[in-house]
Write a structure and sequence with these properties.
By secondary structure, the chain is an alpha+beta fold. Helix content is about 55%, strand content about 15%. The strands form three sheets. It has a four-stranded antiparallel sheet. A two-stranded antiparallel ribbon has the order 1-8. Strands 6-7 form a two-stranded antiparallel sheet.
């Protein structure tokens, strides 16, 4: 399996300064956004479809809670009406003393680690606006230096080569090119141009203040509760992307990959066609 770059390959300058700076700001932002977002979610650990949560009707698609079964407390997670025992993970977790207590997520998964909605909202909104500003900065810089059109935007030849690139990744035949491969382009385009802007838009749709100035956003996303559900699903997609991204960095040679995102220089395969 080809996991590491050819040591005889040339060093090429691949990552511009703006790309590197915004990348590391996003790492920090997404970390705090995830953990503070889960803190906010614990205030109402349910997801619905529509404008409002159901009282006289049922429109819930996810619920995390606790219930007693034969006198024992257990965590219960319900997805589309089907319930699962999630004791120790969701709904009922183990505290520092080894006792089980009703809590949506373990303390290490939230900021703060204890129930504090106000602090969670402050942290979440601060890093959300930092993310928005950084995303705007990246977009402008990437248009100016052509990083977006040259390296991110998938072209016809990339789509044609995508099946082969997916097969190479599945076999862990990881290449080190001067430019991004087809799967990288499609992944980065999806995250940067689709997922992150949608995260921002759905987050704004949940704000009553924004609703007053732009009520059309509620119609666009099918209601505040639907926007909240989409926001949560996009968060899961970002977590999955981050996990796969880190795994690929480790498999492809972490020193070479980290050097690329710190200094901009990466060693490509010796026989790589320098496009």
């Amino acid at each position: 399996m080809k996991l590491l770059a050819n040591r005889d390959g040339p060093l090429v300058y691949r990552q511009r300064l703006a790309t590197r700076l915004t990348h590391w700001v996003w790492v920090v932002c997404l970390f705090f956004l995830l953990l503070s977002g889960l803190q906010i979610f614990t205030a109402r650990p349910d997801l619905y479809i529509g404008q409002q949560s159901g009282f006289a009707f049922e429109n819930r698609v996810l619920s995390i809670g606790a219930a007693f079964d034969q006198g024992e407390l257990g965590g219960v997670t319900t997805v589309f009406g089907r319930s699962f025992d999630t004791t120790g993970v969701l709904g009922v977790v183990e505290d520092a003393d080894g006792n089980f207590q009703m809590q949506t997520f373990p303390g290490w998964l939230t900021i703060p680690s204890y129930r504090d909605l106000a602090t969670g909202r402050i942290v979440h909104f601060f890093f959300a606006w930092v993310l928005v500003g950084t995303l705007a900065l990246w977009l402008v810089a990437s248009l100016v230096n052509r990083h977006l059109t040259r390296d991110i935007l998938p072209r016809g030849r990339d789509l044609a080569a995508l099946p082969g690139d997916i097969a190479d990744h599945a076999r862990l035949r990881l290449h080190h090119r001067r430019s991004y491969g087809p799967l990288q382009k499609l992944s980065y385009f999806t995250i940067l141009i689709v997922v992150l802007p949608l995260m921002v838009a759905t987050g704004l749709t949940m704000s009553p203040g924004v609703n007053a100035y732009a009520p059309w956003m509620l119609d666009l996303f099918g209601g505040r509760q639907t926007a909240r559900t989409i926001h949560f699903v996009l968060m899961l997609a970002l977590v999955a992307f981050a996990a796969i991204h880190i795994a690929m960095v480790l498999l492809a040679g972490p020193f070479n990959e980290m050097r690329s995102m710190v200094t901009g220089w990466i060693r490509i395969d010796g026989k790589e066609d320098e496009r």
